[in-house]
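Researcher: Here's the sequence for the chain we discussed earlier.
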Amino acid sequence: FFRKFVGEATSGSLGAIRMWTCAVLFLMVFLEDLPSIALLPMETRSGEGMLEYFYRLPIGFGRFVTSEISLGVFQLLTEVLLFFGIIGWLTRIVIPLATFCHFLLLGILIDYSFFWHQNLVLLCVMLVLSFTPCGDGWSVDRLWKIYQGRAVPDADRTSPVYGWSRYACWAMIAWPYVANGLSKLQDGGFFWWNPINLRTNLYMDTLKPREYDWVLSLHLTHAPDILFALMGLFTLFSETFFGLVLFSRVARRIFPIAAIMMHIGYNRRLGLKLVSGNLEEEMYVIFQGKVYRGF
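Model: Thanks. This is the structure I predict for it:
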């Protein structure tokens, strides 16, 4: 199984995943206005999910969420930790802390709005990276060890440890796509791709109040049904069978590109954010087995 599906990898491959994941999350956090949450009344909270446990603990989490200064400092702390994750400084400590802080930040945003799936995949990848030697390549930690004359893994040497770590990151990306595809089949059946259903979902999501105003899908009201049917079939196929990337080298060259095309298409039509959590470029980076070597 290891030789056929997992394969060995270099420390640079795992370091590249760490860098790109932290970079995408850093941009997402930077674009948010977390302190403005303090201006919202507590009654607007949904009160669901794991974040509710923090409110029940005697740690003053409710006062923390209603303080603009506290939220601003917390957002800055999260950005600093993610930046340290990008450059790979103290990764053994920084990556778990950045994962926890992003979990809280994302939970607060969702708690005061609605559930969305953007950045959840990245959060899962960060959780996996917390238990891997992702600081051995493409990192300040590596350069500091070299400067001190300490031993570091050879940049060109592959190892099963990095291979399994990379494979675990792949799994964290693959299973949400498969789950999305199966949930569509469960909720809408095999004919989820029906043009009427696709039109309803697209128009409904476009008309929801959001902080951006892209209404391209409203210009497709006169588009033929075959366009929406093809979009639905393409989405259903690319998500449901995305798990094949864990068992096929050919699939690793097809489904990430299909996911990129799917996200670009739906982003243009729905008005969703193009950067945070959609993994267009990240998909390409992660599934290229031998791109990153000698740093």
